[in-house]
Amino acid sequence: MANEAFEPKLVGFLCNWCSYTGADLAGTARMTYAPNIRIIRVMCSGRVDPQFVLKAFIEGADGVLISGCHPGDCHYQEGNYNALRRHRLLSKMLEQFGIERERFRLEWVSAAEGVKFQQICDEFTEQIKKLGPLNLNGGKDEHREA
Amino acid sequence: MNNDKKIKLTINDKPIEVDEGITILQAAKMLDIDIPTLCYHPLLEPYAACRICVVEKKTGENSDLVTSCNTKVQEGMVIYTDSENATKARRLNVELLMAQAPAAKPVQEIAKELGIEKTRFEIEDPEEKCILCGLCVRTCEQIVGAEAISFIERGKNRTVSTPFGEPSEACIGCAACAYFCPTEAITVEDLYGRKVIHDELNLGPSTAIRVPIRQAVPMVPVIDEEACIHFKTGECKLCEKVCEKEAINHEMEDEEIEVEVGSIILASGFIPFDATRIPAYGYGRFDNVITGLEFERLNNASGPTEGKILLANGEEPKAVGLVHCVGSRDKNYNEYCSRVCCMYSLKFAHLINEKTNAEIYDFYIDMRCFGKGYEEFYHRLLEEGTRFIRGRVSEVTDLALTEQEEGKLIINVEDTLLGIVRRIPVDMVILATGLEPGLDQNEIAKIFNISCSQDTFFLERHPKLAPVSTFSDGIFLAGTCQSPKDIPDTVAQAGAAASEALALADKGTFELEPITAEIDEELCSGCQLCIGLCPFTAITYNKEKGISEINDALCKGCGTCVSACPSGASQQKHFRDSQIFAEIEGIFIE
């Protein structure tokens, strides 16, 4: 498969209050952004269990985005700080698994930042396109073929 | 003064019984006997400087001339205010004052009453107004407490002055001395010369104690601590002294009151765009470039010009320019439309047309007359002869290129309908300044845990389905803190917010978040990891059972504990691990 034709699969865990609303705003404002991201709504970025991220990579994601409220703006006061800590730790672990740091992003998107969400999606898709598909299991990815 | 002892005396043969300690002047006032005086003021200690209040006091055979303003009443006093001796002395004193201060109007008036045409004494300075009554000195000392002015020199050379005649540091610039001066001998000069069109147009305070706005609720005056003399010198308290109801208390301090409420409506409003941010429009440089709010003040019947539309020099404008979209619809300032400026500018055009004969030029980008009856109003204006010019004003300048432009303000504009650049000379420019979110908008948002949209107005929960709600339950929005809007829209939104709040209160019950976390007793190992993570202290440890338990009423359902639980005992309703795993699997099915 030539790289040009490669369309990465991205998973986004978006918090209900800021980022999901921000993504919604991008939608209602009819902004166009790369269609590669699949969004899973969680109530808070602090709800994102590291297992979800690993599961997403196993299932075939080429990149995972966690997006929550800006620091200090969390609807649940401090959930996004927990997400930040987990992101740091998990990034280290993913590197040991051979998953590049760039494939796992944490972003703050407020409910008003439809434009920022659009930019992040485009940029992230572009970045992963350059990186190429995630090559777990040395290219013999059962899930991908299934 | 307030003891019960009464004193009997007669004034001009009229008997009167008064309290002990008052003066003859005060007693005469009670009998409606008028004693002329210049240096007396009920709020100040009597000084007996002008000596016009002189009266004749008879004790048996003896006769004596006393100043009534500072002589206390005594038992059995016999006073004549208009006896031959008293009048003679008074006439002499007035003549002396006429020589001292020939330009003082009150002296001339008293002289006229007494039938004195001219003074027999030598006049030194025909322009002099000061009668050396010392009211100003006493005011500064006793009321203001600044002691910035006093008498200097003696005898013939006596004058009132600041130390060494220099501007005094002790002077707080309150102008109380000028206010108390009976002969207008003192004038206050603005040394810092800030140029302001019409005194009150800066919308600033006029007095230190005032009713903040005409529609104030409650309708009571407030004291401006920064302008109040008392807070500068610790003296004055004049208002306290004259208030019969004793309602004024200078010691009152701001207090924080805690009130428990079930819902909150945020209506923190807007701030007007600061027109000095667009230097090209000359606001602050040209006297006759004013903002919409300033025009409102000018046009107000209780305003500085009593509602007359006048230029800074007091003349009626011959041409007025209305500039729309000042600070709005402009990438350099605010991208959004402030919604109200078009209509208020049209209103101004109508009012100017009604009150003056001025040519009215209205510079707009797009005429946004969106409300009920608004478009009709615009058409009325078109018929009234307002000249509408479509185009954004680039500059307001006083640099005249032709003779006609001399002494005018020239508005530079591209007339987009004609496709040419025009220079239009006018006398007055009114800037339709837009609406901006409050400066502390983000802080307020943080306090109430709500969001701001990109323009920092508060974000509603949903633009169509929940336009007055926020992401925090029980917190509602009303008015311009949410977005620029006019009065009808604000009233409508405020009504909606109030009924939302009432609906909550009326129900009496509160719907709990259905998405809460729950702990499976079978799986919980009692590690208590979740307890430290919960920002709402909803989780407690049950020692007996050796497990953690969640209080449903406190849990807001963020799910932080769920993702931390090492044994999977904590689960979030509707967002269970298994549900999200299934979702992840689901999105990869092609």
Describe this structure in words.
The complex is a heterodimer of chains A (146) and B (590). Chain A is α/β, with parallel strands linked by helices and 146 residues long. Chain A has five helices and four strands; from the N terminus they run βαβαβαβαα. In chain A, strands 2-1-3-4 form a four-stranded parallel sheet, sandwiched between helices. The longest helix of chain A has 18 residues. The two termini of chain A are 17 Å apart. The mean pLDDT of chain A is 89. Chain B is an alpha/beta fold and 590 residues long. Chain B has 15 helices and 25 strands. In chain B, helix 2 packs antiparallel against helix 3 and helix 9 runs parallel beside helix 10. The longest helix of chain B is centred in the last third of the chain and has 21 residues. Chain B is flat and about 125 Å long. Chains A and B meet through strand 2, helix 2 and helix 3 of A and helix 14 and helix 15 of B.
Could you write a compact summary of the structure shown?
The complex is a heterodimer of chains A (146) and B (590). Chain A is of the alpha/beta class and 146 residues long.
List the helices and strands and how they pair.
The complex is a heterodimer of chains A (146) and B (590).
Chain A: E1 10-15, H1 19-28, E2 37-42, H2 50-59, E3 63-68, H3 79-96, E4 104-108, H4 114-131, H5 142-145
Parallel strand pairs in A: 1-2, 1-3, 3-4
Chain B: E1 6-11, E2 14-19, H1 24-30, E3 54-59, E4 62-67, E5 77-80, H2 84-100, H3 105-113, H4 135-144, E6 150-152, E7 159-161, H5 176-180, E8 209-210, E9 222-223, H6 230-233, H7 238-242, E10 264-266, E11 270-272, E12 289-291, H8 292-299, E13 319-326, H9 341-355, E14 359-364, H10 374-384, E15 387-390, E16 393-397, E17 409-415, E18 420-426, E19 428-433, E20 435-437, H11 441-447, E21 475-477, H12 487-507, E22 517-519, H13 529-533, E23 539-542, E24 547-550, H14 560-564, E25 570-572, H15 577-587
Parallel strand pairs in B: 1-5, 10-21, 12-19, 13-14, 13-19, 14-15
Antiparallel strand pairs in B: 1-2, 3-4, 3-5, 6-7, 8-9, 11-20, 16-17, 17-18, 22-25, 23-24
